[in-house]
Amino acid sequence: MTELTRAEKKAKEVRQRMKIASPLPETVADVKAAVKTRKDRSVLELEQKILTLEEAKCKIIAGYEQRLKLKDATIELLQTKVGSIEEGESKNKEMEAAIKEQEAKITSLEAVEEENKQLKLDLDHLQKTSEYDQKMVQEALSAAEANLSSKVEEHTLLQTKLVNLLSKLQVRSKMTQALSELDNDIAELSDQDGHIVVQESCTHIYQACDAIDVEKIKESLSPRNMIIDERDDFPVQEVEVEKETSMTMKKLASMMACGASLPLAAE
User: Where are the annotated coiled coils located (predicted)?
Assistant: First the structure.
């Protein structure tokens, strides 16, 4: 820019010199002066052309410098844009990586959701199975309670039957003892042939026989009144008592028949 200013100043000086008016030459000196003036004008024109060229050169150089600066600015701008593009690409890559990560998370969440659905179905199935098992257990408990109640009733009934049986055995034992004693008394009052020889003893025997309810004894000894459980330990003893009582009754009946055939002598 400094050289351009200098060239412009010189061009202004040359223009001012060319504007000086010169009269027509009259003498040789005037001719020389005119020639010199022409030379000066030519020189000035040449200098003006040179200055113009220099000015144009300076302008061209300035234009090139301006273009270079603009080019440098454009290059810097392009570099900035390239950097921003690279940065954008880097951010895009980061965004793509983040998107892929989010997609992976979404996929894992979908898998977890499916697993939760399956777990919910399994839980519902287990709940239904548990309710069914609980119902079955409740029914089994109710059946067990009913069975236990029936078993308790059966046990109570068996205890009652056992008490009755023991009572009957005691009665039969007493009866057996009484019949045995009666048998001994009859044996003492009988002769070798088995006949009763004393009338008072016969009367005593008759009274004793009348006191014995034979039908009641027979009824107590009947099979339908003998309730004996197969699990009891008494059947053998019961059968023995029955046999002994039956034999005594038969013997007593025969003795009563013999006593009925004897005469009633007071002496």
Answer: 85-129
Closest by CA to 208, choosing from 263, 145, 142, 259, is: 259
Q: Which two tokens stand for residue 195?
A: 């006949």
| 42-55 pLDDT per residue, tens | 777 887 788 888 88
List CB contacts of 252: < 8 A, sequence separation 6 or more: 179, 182, 183, 186, 209
Grade residue 11 by pLDDT with cuts at 50, 70 and 90. Answer: low
Residues 253 and 162 in one domain: yes
Residues of the domain holding 176: 156-261
The H or E element that residue 249 is part of is helix 235-261
The structural domain count of the chain equals: 2
pLDDT band for position 261 (50/70/90)? very low
Given a contact cutoff of 8 angstroms between Cβ atoms, the answer to whether 228 and 238 are in contact is yes
Q: Which of 93, 113, 148 finishes a domain?
A: 93
Distances (CA, A) of 67 to 2, 58, 63, 207: 19, 14, 6, 168
Whether 185 maps to a domain, the answer reads yes
Residue range 118-154, pLDDT digits in tens? 898 988 888 888 888 888 888 888 888 888 888 888 8
Q: What residues have CB less than 8 Å from 217, skipping those under 6 apart?
A: 175, 245, 249
